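Hi C.,

You asked whether I'd gotten around to modeling the 691-residue construct. I have! Everything is below, sequence then structure, no commentary in between.
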Amino acid sequence: MSTGSSDKSSDPPTPQSPGPDPVHDLPEEVLRAGWRRFWSKREKRWYYFNKMTGESLWEMPVVHKSPHNGVPGGSDRITDPLGISVPDTPTDVRSPPPFDLKRRRDSEASITSLGSMSPSKRMKMEGPVYWNFDILSNAIIFEHPPCTMPPVHPEAESYRAQLTNKLRSQYQELCQTREGIDAPRESFNRWILERKVMDRGNDPMLPTHCAHEVSPSMYREIMSDIPVRGCRLRHPVEARKYVFKYAEAAKKMVESRNCSPDSRKIVKWSVEDIMQWLRRQNSATLEDYQERLTHLKTQCGPHLTDAAKSSVEGICQKIYHLSCESAKKIYDKHWEILKEHGIEEIQRKFEVHKRRVQCYQIHMVVSCPRLPSISYHVENNVGCLRFKGEVLTLNQNYLQKLEHLYRIHCRDDRPLENFLPRVWCLLRRYQGFADSGHDFARRWATPGRGGERSSGGNGPASQTLFGSSPNEGTGLQGALPVPVFEAVHKHFGVTFELFASPLNCYFRQYCSAFPDTDGYFGSRGPVLDFHPVSGSFEANPPFSEELLNAMAEHFERLLATSSEPLSFLVFIPEWRDPPIPALLRMENSIFKRKTVVVPAFEHEYRSGLQHVCSGSDLYHKSVHGTLVLILQNEAGFAKWGPTDERVKGLLDAYKPQGNPSPSTSASEGRRESVDGKSATESRSNSKEEKR
């Protein structure tokens, strides 16, 4: 990831642009090799950046034309990136390079990039490795404009966490005061996912600019818990108590709300009928109670929905407005910090030419100040990063993984001066899975000392994106097992993940939710903003109906507009009672080449807490089947088509490898009948192990 840097000196004079477009005002062979020109505010001179290799040079690169096709270096980086079609030519190894490497003014020493290290000198990981960064991506994209988001800063990220925690607490209070229920589990997380599908605001996490203030996801999940929150019915005694509780709550609700006389009459009559049945029945079975509960909900549900509609819509609107206010405060705070270092916001828009290039890292054009120091120490193979008393933790081998990714993708920080601050910001954004009530959380939690707040605990500091309830958020950050990644790469040419994070990615290139924190570690930004024209991709999305629908539409549009080999392997739960709209759309798509079903209990997923949990808690059995939908255009089908041999290789890779697996997580088991709800309602409160 390429960034700028700044000091407190005065603004440089306006450079004399040699043309109307100084970025692309270069010889054609230099442009084709990936070079662009940018102005360095710190050094007050032009420099050259290669979007394909990440190199930065002070002098214009010298690219010699070859007699082979007139392409620099003798081969086309797009059609022949390895130069296989070009005959060998003698090279004078004694010749010096035609240009000098760009060096930092404040550092004489530089650390060699991992990409140029020999295999014997590469980093040795401690413990098991669940990734392979030697695989290069085959993704081809159109050139895209640089990112104008402000660079991450620990002060701003800490402030974001405080306001996000407050917003989550306000959501809980609104649900309790207005509807007398707790906020539905995972509802806030899915609200963020659903809102970001349509959000056009400038905050990377909180929604600020949506077409509709009322979120369908949040509205649907609150309504499913009215008048009482659902629970799992296992025994007749529990079912009898729950039916009685639901009937009493329904009656009380219509008496206290502004309902029509007909609605009150129908609800009271239905409640009286079920009460009489409960008095007569002393030996009813669990199925009898479930049947009666379903009938009661059918009779009362529409009237209760009408009674609560305005109140629930008010909750959704209030949370959205509070989110806008919080995002504005974060924005002002962030730029206040940057302006103290003489960094100003970039207002102009960047124009790019529509050129096909190999997928390259995000280029941040806003200069990055020198970030505050982060203290770091290791306890029991767990790395602890502390900033102003707040400690974030992760396993030591995952910190090494992040360093590996950082060295590959962030070549302008070769001394790694900003590495730990950026890791802290990354963890602060993603942290919040901890639950002191579970053994795995207790094992990796770092107790606070001397007034420090530890994000391994269950206090307010442990809440951010995914909450602090038991297992909350783990269903949003699962990953495929390593053998499956190896199989899809071997048989289907997959080199790129479309739903990942720096903490759980397998390949060196991937899409993730947050380009500002993840871009330094190889992310190419959100999947809906990613437009490949060629390549083979794996998609293992989090469960959000709105996100899945947008994903399916996005993939179909990409496949329809590209004539080059393009392939998507989509992994989603086998939920068919009823099927989700995105599943129906992909199964009926003209680009669907095959649907592979992996049976329930015969495969597993890696935990969303893999960067902090122990080995015994790493894998979880899946109680549902998994569908693998293979979507390909004609060229992609010809190159990576799902032959019987390839499909067999994928299914064989899914077989458990003897990994220690804990008991099935509670979040998986929620597909079974839940207090008479339909499968669609039950899905609102549960997740497969997805991202």
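If it helps when you're writing up: Residues 5-19, 66-122, 432-477, 660-691 have pLDDT under 50 and may be disordered.

Thanks,
B.
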